Amino acid sequence: MEESKAQPVWQASRSLFGKRGSPTLRTFTLASRAGPWPGHRHQWASVTHTFICITLFFGTKMSRHLDRISQHSFICSALSPDSIVFDFGANQGEFSLNIIEKYGCRVFAAEPVLALCDSMRRHERLSLHRIAIGKNGEIVDLIVNDDDVLSSTVLDHDVAESVLGTSNSLRTITETCLDLAAFRELNGIDHVDLVKVDIEGAELDLFETTSDHALRSCGQLTVEFHDYWYPDLATRTERAKQRLCDLGFRMIRFTPNNKDIVFVNPEIIRLSFLDWQYLEKVSRHLNYCGRGARVMANRLFRKRAA
Fold first, then answer.
1. Which residue range is the domain that position 26 belongs to?
2. Residue 152 within a domain
3. Are 73 and 66 within 8 A, CB to CB?
């Protein structure tokens, strides 16, 4: 009796639109179960090779769209020397200076801690303001660690001690905040191509109070939320994310928590359907795997060193 042949993988597959004959990630669920085990092995090999080829093809294609600086991801293909970038929470200027060196953008940075402003390298395309960002006109107390001034926070002392150090080295400085619209007006800017937000808890006040018009004037926002430090901020964090999505931004999360999220305004940054699918469905999972591999490697090296 003649051995039955397995149905070809491509004929058994269905595309996203329900047609036959085009490879997708669902191929393995639809492959024929007829035929001997070697046939299955060839089918699985075809599926694996197809997935790798698709991933490499779009990965190479998307490498010109996506970049990550100082743990903040963003759509780099939307940037040019004519682009305007706001850096909220500039720290020592790593993000600002790298953006200038790689893409030639004009950067306006805000950093409330005097020691950090003084340590920042100056550049002709960088305008630095010693200003706190948050709810416009609000006076806030920022907690700073005198032993390590690399960050400050508007969160309470209990959280600050867990993040910045013991209470003996902490002090409080008082600053008046500007929001996105006020900072834009201060610098005479009508629209912003990229806003980086890493302001140690004040991002919630910023997103809760900034006007819809000011937010919609941004091409993209790359944000670090801080609910992983302070779980009580989780509800407000989700509301802030939802507000940006309701305004039309497309959210892409690159970490399992809310530490690296980019909100892209599709009315300003126009990408193809396939580019969006890759960014939203594939690239973030690849980033998860990469981060997991780095964490495991670091743990292994530490164990060996011990």
1. 9-62
2. yes
3. yes
